DNA sequence: CTGAAAGCGCTTACAG
DNA sequence: CTGAAAGCGCTTACAG
């Protein structure tokens, strides 16, 4: 017999109401909630059988299964995930690592997409937000010994070589979503930046723009992204189409800490663009939000969009259609679904048909692009 | 000794690469990841001491603590949450129940706010999306026996009496966020609808509007919300300010399944409003998104906003400032932080200073409200 | 198809 | 301050 004196009160919780009682005395064990053992006793079978019946694994007679199920329902029984996990070695959890905030256009969509497919498969989706380079380092330091999830989805994070090494040695599958490179991931889902930029430049070219530019977002050195990939792709696309380097301008992202506000960064960028000797007549901007902010700033200054300057964004987020922004549309919910499907397969030990998926964006023509007017 | 034959391979996972090896052979146990026992052995202390040292509980000499910490770092050791949880009875997890999708303005903000405070306290935030009334029923059926989290935050869900009863008997704390009523929750955080509507009606009144109306969103009977509270508050506020019932119009939300698209629902509502004999000169709309859609629809039809009809929204979401919408601003991130702080306190067994918080909204005047022009 | 038993990796009184 | 030992609630070979 277990020493009762040593029995701990599990999940003790004092109600804020004054009576201070514990809830529900339905279970004959007294305080608390039914366990598998209670179900077994009530159904007159062994714990093994209850486990098999409830999880649908192994051979159990239909009659037994039904009875066990009934008893379990009556007792409001739910398996303890901690106990199952400890015994089986599977946590039934997938961690999604994002930067900055859960409440961004891309990250919230990523959560939703991954949740849809993982929850159907019985997995929990656990978000992990990494805000600084240190956070990220700490996460990767502990990743190899982490037994708290069965797989990881890493969103929009630029990895260094150490981190790639960690992923390569990892005992659990890792999938990169919006990964800039294949890294050490078992699978990735990402946008085809080269193709996107080619679409954008082609549009500008066919509209007759001779001087074009790419505008990077203000950069945070402590952040983990890099715009260089996209601006590089822009340059390549422009050269392919016959623009020479004098006709291509890159407006680099300044360190964001130099500015008091997002608006200040926008103004500074707009000023740089306008002060340019041979100002471009069309710009591709790294993201919609920055493109929209620039559009407002240009108009405030008295520059017409698109008559004086055409603008193409990237993302097609919530605001873009309202702003009538021409942009490259991507679907982060769908991308996250794909990423989650990859982790699922990998967690089951199945091989990936296409480990690294590269998705096309669609160019959506709206009202911020037009034929250039002579200045 | 343990029978090795019976040792299970835990967390087995076949790499997609062809070599099929398991990762990392750093640990001297061979395959796999360090456990507390490994750390104890390497540090030359007992498992109890490792546990105490790593968690900072109980008396451990500084010297021992430092050594254990070192060894743990070297071994990339992380506690198994499943094992800790099973042993301690605390899951260190909080479930956030939302409806429909994680990717909505309110829900994504709620995740972010709750995450901020819970992750600081060492808790995981686990989302649970409830899409249908059946999903909700199933969740509440199993809630009493659920040992898989230490607390719940329920977002924007209208409870029935059974569900209130379940919450009242629950052994873990439950907090309602954007709750319409106190329900059976241990704590709630919600908007002061009455005050909000009073602010809105006061503005319209002082601008000189004599005929005003409230527009409900299209409703989903399978969904779990109700607009009646807000429209009721509107009516009360209008009466308070001396409007008689003939001057107040309520445009009820039709069943959403009657429409092929959101846009159809918007058109139908706009038509109802315009066809009204004594059309109101100002409208409060249940949410910003619907207000903005109506604004576009009115303008499409040739009705000027605000000259012919003033519009006030509710939420102040991402699109509102761009649409120049006058609206009632609420801050779901801050609300979610408060909700999470309440669960935290309750999980620690501490009483809540203010169990039920009612937050004011701020009326933001933008360009969709004006003095009515004579028709 | 079913049961007895070992084991998963921790935490926590208890006893020094 | 530290260790030995019981126990948390399951799963899963193994043996019928």
Question: Would you kindly provide a written description of the structure presented here, covering whatever features stand out?
Answer:
The structure is a homodimer of 375-residue chains. Chain A has 375 residues and is of the alpha/beta class. Chain A has three domains: 76 residues, 434 Repressor (Amino-terminal Domain) (Orthogonal Bundle), CATH 1.10.260; 128 residues, 3-Layer(aba) Sandwich (Rossmann fold), CATH 3.40.50.2300; 137 residues, Rossmann fold, CATH 3.40.50. Chain A contains twelve helices and twelve strands. Chain A has a six-stranded parallel sheet with strand order 2-1-3-4-5-11. A six-stranded mixed sheet of chain A has the order 7-6-8-9-10-12, sandwiched between helices. The radius of gyration of chain A is 28 Å and the shape is elongated. The N and C termini of chain A lie far apart (93 Å). In chain A, 46% of the residues are buried. The N terminus of chain A is likely disordered. Chains A and B meet through α4, α5, β2 and α12 of A and α4, α5, β2 and α13 of B. Chain A binds a DNA duplex (16 and 16 nucleotides) through α2 and α4. Chains A, B: Keywords: DNA-binding, Transcription, Transcription regulation.
């Amino acid at each position: 017999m277990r020493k009762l004196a040593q029995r701990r009160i599990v999940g003790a919780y004092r109600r804020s109401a004054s009576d201070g009682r514990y809830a529900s005395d339905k279970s004959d064990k007294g305080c608390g909630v039914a366990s598998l053992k209670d179900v077994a006793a009530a159904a007159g079978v062994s714990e093994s059988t209850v486990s098999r019946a409830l999880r649908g694994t192994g051979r159990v007679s239909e009659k037994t299964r039904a009875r066990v199920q009934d008893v379990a329902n009556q007792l409001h029984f739910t398996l303890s995930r901690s106990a199952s996990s400890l015994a089986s070695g599977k946590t039934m959890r997938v961690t999604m690592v994002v930067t900055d905030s859960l409440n961004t256009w891309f990250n919230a969509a990523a959560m939703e997409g991954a949740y849809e497919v993982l929850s159907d498969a019985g997995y929990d989706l656990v978000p992990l937000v990494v805000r600084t380079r240190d956070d990220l380092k700490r996460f990767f330091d502990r990743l190899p010994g982490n037994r708290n999830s069965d797989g990881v989805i890493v969103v929009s994070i630029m990895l260094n070589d150490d981190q790639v090494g960690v992923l390569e040695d990892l005992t659990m599958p890792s999938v990169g979503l919006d990964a800039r490179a294949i890294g050490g991931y078992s699978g990735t889902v990402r946008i085809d930046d080269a193709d996107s930029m080619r679409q954008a430049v082609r549009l500008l070219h066919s509209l007759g723009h001779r001087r074009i530019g790419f505008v990077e977002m203000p950069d945070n050195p402590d952040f983990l992204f890099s715009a260089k990939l996209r601006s590089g792709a822009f340059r390549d696309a422009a050269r392919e189409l016959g623009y020479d380097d004098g006709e291509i301008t890159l407006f680099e992202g300044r360190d964001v800490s130099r500015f008091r506000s997002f608006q200040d960064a926008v103004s500074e960028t707009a000023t740089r663009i306008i002060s340019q000797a041979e100002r471009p007549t069309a710009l591709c901007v790294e993201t919609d939000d920055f493109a929209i902010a620039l559009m407002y700033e240009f108009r405030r200054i008295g520059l017409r969009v698109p008559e004086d300057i055409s603008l193409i964004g990237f993302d097609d987020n919530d605001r873009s259609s309202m702003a009538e922004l021409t942009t490259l549309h991507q679907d982060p919910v769908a991308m996250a679904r794909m990423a989650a499907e990859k982790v699922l397969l990998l967690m089951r030990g199945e091989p990936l048909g296409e480990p690294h998926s590269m998705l096309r964006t669609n160019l959506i023509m709206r009202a911020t692009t037009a034929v250039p007017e002579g200045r």
